[in-house]
Amino acid sequence: MSAVALAAEQVPERHYTHHEGRGPTPHRSNPVVIHRELTTLDLRPHMRVAEYGTGSGYSTELIARLVGPKGEVTSLDIDTYLTCWANVIHHERGLDNVRCYTADGTVGFHERAPYDRVMAWCTPPLLPKAWTDQVAEGGLIVAPLPIANVPNMTVVAKIRVNDGQPTTEAVATGGYIEATASPKGDLDLPGRWVDWENRIPAPSWISLAWRADDDRLHTGARTALDRLLHAMHTEPYEGAEVDWPSWRTFAAFLGDPQLTMAGLRPDLWAIGHTTPDTAAVLQQDGTILADSPNSPSLETLREWINAWEGAGRPAPETYTPNLVRAVDGQGPAGWHLRLSR
């Protein structure tokens, strides 16, 4: 049995996720996925670990047990309610090697650095330089990272840091809630890169990779979302059931500047192509929507789908990850993750 599986036998997951004093924690991940990420993190006794995204505290105790009493775990979350309760629960369970703090994890936590390992359960806009600066030589970071500047297009990356420089060793299917500057209230709305949102008559939103070309009134985003909500053309996707992780990764890999993601219903995402004049998307349920049957965006979307099918619906793990240094002065310092084949 693996070290993670052995540790999991000692940690009552539901005690954390549905604690009778704090109540259920909505920000929680599937234990199977948590175990996968911690296996990738390769935790060993005596290590110093930073965890970004305390959540229920379940993963924190797993980490604490894997690094042992002489290890050290620093867990951060933007939500004070979660960190306060996690500290109490850990104390009650006799964990002396864990400290939870309320802080913005995207800037790291230099007070307790350096760290041998960094685990993130929230998605920053890019790999922050602060994280690589605070990792010990040869250390590992396991974190979800965007592969395009629209929401929900992520992979989980395993990153090795040597001489302050990160190298991606592997990527896997997955993603976690966006890192935000304050606790996230609406779990159906992405925390970043939403270019227009409707709340009435029903919630909907859209994200444009071409937002820099839109005007200050978000006319392009508003118009594109309206075209999709009142689509003049629908057709079924003729292939097998949509493999969403594969499709969204391929769409991001294409790097098309007109890439668009939308949520036309709270429980239904869509990915496609929009311009100031046309719009077309493929929804998770296999429905294709477009502004007209002769839409240029629809033609492009069909080309994307055919290319995806022709490539054999590749899994996210089959792409080659590339870290691209962010341009100085154009946002936070760090590296963007992009995929190639």
Summary tags:
341 residues, alpha+beta, Rossmann fold, 2 domains, 7-stranded mixed sheet, 7-stranded antiparallel sheet, 9 helices, 31% strand, globular
What does this entry look like structurally?
This protein is an alpha+beta fold. It has 2 domains: 3-173, Vaccinia Virus protein VP39 (Rossmann fold), CATH 3.40.50; 196-310, no CATH class. It contains 9 helices and 19 strands. The strands form 4 sheets. It has a 7-stranded mixed beta sheet with strand order 5-4-3-6-8-9-10. It is globular, with a radius of gyration of 21 Å. It starts with a helix and ends with a strand.
Number of strands: 19
- Sequence of secondary-structure elements: HHEEHEHEHEEEHEEEEEHEHEEEEHEE
**Share of helical residues:** 25-40%
Number of helices: 9
Structural class: alpha+beta
Distance between the termini: 35 Å
Beta-strand percentage? 25-35%
What CATH architecture label of the largest domain applies? Answer: 3-Layer(aba) Sandwich
- On the 0 to 100 scale, the average pLDDT is 94
The Rg value, from CA coordinates, equals 21 Å
**Principal-axis shape:** globular
CATH evolutionary superfamily of the largest domain: Vaccinia Virus protein VP39
CATH topology of the largest domain: Rossmann fold
Number of self-contained structural domains: 2
Strand order of the largest sheet: 5-4-3-6-8-9-10
Low-confidence stretches: none
Main β-sheet description:
7 strands, mixed
**CATH class designation of the largest domain:** Alpha Beta
